[in-house]
Amino acid sequence: MHRLAGWLGHNVPDAAQTLALMLSHCSVAQPANSHTDPTWGMASNLPIAVEGALAAVITGRPRFDAEEFNGIPAANALLTLWKRHGREAPKHIHGTFTLAVLDRNENSVFLALDRIGAEKLAFAASAGGLVFASQADMVAAHPRVGKQLDQQGLFNYLYFAQVPAPGSIFRGVNKLLPAQWAYWKNGDLSKGFYWALQYHDQPRHDFSEQSARFHRILRDSVERARGDDVAAAFLSGGTDSSTVSGVLKEQTGKLQTYSIGFDASGFDEIEYARLAAKRFGLDLHEYYLKPADIEEAIPIIANHYDEPFANESAVPTYFCAKLAAADGFKVMLAGDGGDEIFGGNARYAKQKVFELYHQIPAVLRGGLIEPLVNLPGLGKIPPFSKAQSYIRQANIPLPERMESYNYVYRQPLAEMFTPAFLAQVDSHQPSELLKEVYDRADSGSYINRMLHLDIKFTLADSDLRKVGAMTEAAGIDVRYPLLDDAMMNFSGEVPPDWKVKGQYLRWFFKTALKGFLPDEIINKSKHGFGLPFGLWAKEYAPLRDRIETRLADLKKRNILQPAYIDLLRNEHMSGHATYFGKMIWNMMILEEWLQAKEL
Question: I want to staple 7 with a disulfide (CB 3.0 to 4.6 A). Which of 131, 288, 312, 441 is the partner?
Fold first, then answer.
């Protein structure tokens, strides 16, 4: 993974007005044709195309529409596309990438991010210039910006367990959304989207044809992700990772996969990974995570993420990638994305139950059902109390209705946060961020709109950040075949009633894969790459002591009420360890990150 950083400004001496573009890298991939261009003040291990007043750079694994660009440096292809199409250039680029095009004559910078947000691009814009980088902390480190924490970013972190784009944890630093561009020219900033997933809402009746097409796209996507590299694969035993592993094994003849197990009831799913390994003849490597491994991973997480990040499955992801790296692998394929493009999360079916209520005529709902159900005293009778709860939830519009399960959403904020902190934040912003993405979906179906929401918040802001950073820490380049552009486009053509058929999740995907995947994997309930942190944080003394120390430090920061932190810790130790453990993890990781970044 390569990191991109730079700045461009005006009203400064000529020497500083030239682009000061700093390109740093990790050891994952190093192009052979790196060079330095002193004219632009660029020292780089990435190929940079320079032509007169223009300079272009692109990172990641981009692919171009036109065959004329095959075999030439990607930066040169980008520069040609820019001269032909200007801000439309990203429409002709596929794969994962960040890009920057700079024009000294116009004093302008153009930035863009790939369609799924597998890469990252942050920036700080002002009248005096634009600072940009692939990491938010790199932007904040620039003297024109400054590492000042943003209180809204802190609130959003505690709400989402990460800081979702477009905001960041640093004041004045923003992030691009998937498929978004930003254009800065002489102090003015504009933004837009160069691509949006097109959804097909109408029912279809050509399952056999679409199933065959899906299998062709699946195999092409895995082949493109693999490229010319010898790749290993993550294998959780779920539908997605098993599918990717099975296709990859077909194409390569042999495959080593890596799985994580947990010696904790309700968390271990390695038996399904073994089923997939047996079906496809995979060389399965297993590792059972221990509480001491969490202790090892915490400082890695705190140091390696550019913002606080509390998706706890970062821990097993890191150890999985670390095992593959120890065996000499540089590339791994991951199965992320299938749930979010084909309808695999339980909330899609759950919300369907609530949406049915709105098919009843409004005059009947408001004039008869709700007055009857809400008659005084009926709330104490179980059937009526359940009906009242159902109607209450159904009357909350999507996507906010899904937030009724969010821990922070359900809390009295004045008891949770200090008055000084709350005075500086907009507690409604998380809901507004969700609504913007939900409403922007090119679909009238709430199923597709929820999927569109998850592509941004669950994938781009969370799962791809989790996997990307932890594989990078382990020295691995990760790729996502199920999020290939062709597969994404195909998923939009799958109608919503094929994604969630009644209460059957991922109907099309699973039905199309019958006979390929073991039935036990197709029929298993969704689990994920969970971590028994809450349980181990009660039982394992070193982890318990670390939590106590970090929470004591967090109390001094005037963000959360000290009494609330104590209450939450007591609930965790005496009540539901897994439920309260998630918020304990969020708070601990925040303090670990703040200390690691010396903030």
Answer: 131
